[in-house]
Amino acid sequence: MIKKLLARLLPSKNHFHGGLHITPPRHKSMSTGAPSREAALSAEYAISLRQRDGSAYLAKVAPGERVLRGQLLAEPVNSQDAPVHAPTSGTIRAIEPRPEMHPANQPVPHLILASDGKDESVPPLTALDPATTDADALRERIAACGIVGLGGAGFPTARKLGHPANTLVINAAECEPYITCDDLQIRENAADIIHGAQIAAKILGAEHIHFGIEDDKPQAIAALERAAADINDPRLKISSVPTRYPSGNTRQLFELLLGVRVPADQHASDYGLICHNSGTMKAVYDAVIRGEPLTERYTTISGEGVNQPQVLRIRTGAPVRDLIAQAGGEKGDNRYIIGGPMMGYQIISADTPLQKTGNSLLLLPAIAPAEESPCIRCSRCADACPMELLPQQLLWYSQSDEHKRLKQYRLYDCIECGICAAVCPSAIPLVQYYRHSKGAIRAADEKARAAEHARTRHEARTARLEREAAERQAQMDARRAKLQQNPAADKPERYTPAKETTASPADFPPPPMEEGQGWGSSANLAAESSTDAKTAAIEAAKARAAARRAERLAQNGEAKTPTAVMPPPLQGALAPAAGEGWGGGNVPASSANIETTTDTAPAPHQLLPDDAKTAAIEAAKARASARKAA
After folding, report:
1. What's the number of domains the chain is made of?
2. Which InterPro entries match (predicted)?
3. pLDDT digits (tens, 9 = 90+) for 115-141
């Protein structure tokens, strides 16, 4: 707020600091001797698919497809640019790299349109009435028609019109040498330009429309004044400004027209100001009233290397080579400059296609650059700088890559007007140093932003993992506390398998006995005798099993069978035991729970005669016990 008040309270009195008065001849008369002329159709047009911010356009047509003039060819992927349309009718031959109209001169993808010479157009869009159409609809039409700033920056006009302003300034100063396209366009289309400015004012809600034009364009000034008188809009004001470079820069024009100095760290929209080029207003009028997209513009073809300097109405995408040919060809060895000699840049190929921002093509003699000498601290650059910078200090810090110092000395306030380099007696290309430093700072800042983003992501991930670990620990602590309070509350029931037990005699009770059966009438005596008999039967069965096992071993030749070593009396005693059971009969295997299967374990040790004798004795004892129990 304080800066705004100071800017209002300390006006510049229609003067800005520094600047350069370029003495005549200014080379403008070379191309203004005749009206503008429509350029002949080229055999081929190349439409760049690279946006201002470096991202790629989204092509809406494919190779082999026929298109008409005004048809949509590509759309931007963001709001940093505007759509592009076909400059004439023909066939899309390919998408291939061509030199870009850019200081880098790098090949980028282009849509190659082969003209069919018919120049057929799509039907124009419906005309809109600015008086009854709301601002949003007008902005949408301007955006759909691909209107961008034609003064050189190429910023999307619809986006720029999205900021409300009280005063709309129309820049018609055209302060650079050689460039005359705005001059001739105003002479020939003054009324359309004013109507376009009225449409823009309607969108912005502006109460003032102020034209600024240098006083070396008397015919254009007269044309504007006549058109303004016919339109009779009280918001209109036509003002001439002194011919002093760079009066066409936005901030300097605000000072000259309004006496307001906008601080370098502020936007003009913060002060209710907005500036548009006069050619842009003509494109706005064509889009809203005529329904035509931007496919044509006024371009100056001039310089000492051109045989017939003139202003052509060219189609976007026309190659430089064709435009030079239509201006009578070139003479001598020349440099190709896009823009003016002060702020323009050199292209290296005549195959480079001109795009929407190509306001001028200059052919200047190819002279060797002057030899650079050390700075002598003469301060001429500081005296001439319109932004009141210290170019010599910026040079030192640029050479030593002191980015922090460059920012402190307001490097980004430099408008790259080239005055410092023009007045430098040491022929130091100061602007080139500044451009390089700006790029290096941008790259360093981008790297720092990427590192900060990575650090933020890492910290967020670490915090998330710690939070999840804390949540898991809290759950475990709560579960542990619950278990301590009631150990059995949350314990799952475990499956306990049944133990494998060997049947005991108690599992097989003897059959019930009728009263009076047995050796006594007492029930207790009967039960006891039954138990003893069962036990004796089990022991006898074990003995028989041992005897059979010994017999099998003897038959296999692994050991002598017990019967082979037993005396005949024992053999005879053992044989009847094999068939005796409980009560003198056979004992069922299921009742005695006797293991009768052959042992598959390793063969037992060989039975000696003593072992067989012992087994026979045990069997006899078992039989005796069984008989006694019976």
Report:
1. 3
2. 4Fe4S_Fe-S-bd, 4Fe4S_Fe_S_CS, Ion_transpt_RnfC/RsxC, Nuo51_FMN-bd, Nuo51_FMN-bd_sf, RnfC_N, Soluble_ligand-bd
3. 999 999 999 999 999 999 999 999 999
Between helix 135-144 and helix 181-204 the angle, nearest 10°, is: 140
Report yes or no on whether pTM surpasses 0.85: no
Residue ending a domain, among 231, 256, 290, is 290
Q: How many secondary structure helices (H) and strands (E) does the chain include?
A: 18, 17
d(CA 528, CA 492): 46
129 within some domain? no
Joined together, the tokens standing for residue 388 give 């009141």
Residues linked to residue 69 through DSSP beta bridges, in sequence order:
121
Rounded to whole angstroms, the Cα distance separating 577 from 536 reads 12
Record the tokens describing residue 63, joined without a space.
């190779």
CB 188 within 8 A of CB 226: no
C-alpha 210/C-alpha 189 separation (Å) is 17
The C-alpha atoms of residue 541 and residue 594 are separated, in whole angstroms, by 7
Residues 389 and 442 in one domain: yes
Distance (Å, whole) CA 259 – CA 305: 40
Q: What is the 3-state secondary structure (H, E, C) of 499-558?
A: CCCCCCHHHCCCCCCCCCCCCCCCHHHHHHHHHHHHHHHHHHHHHHHHHHHHHHHHHCCC
pLDDT tops 80 at residue 215: yes
Q: Which one, of 27, 273, 67, 42, lies nearest residue 174 by Cα? A: 27
Token pair 């005879």 in the structure block, residue:
572
| Dihedral of alpha carbons 387, 390, 392, 393, sign | negative
Residue tagged 């709560």 (tokens): 478
What pLDDT is attached to residue 520? 44
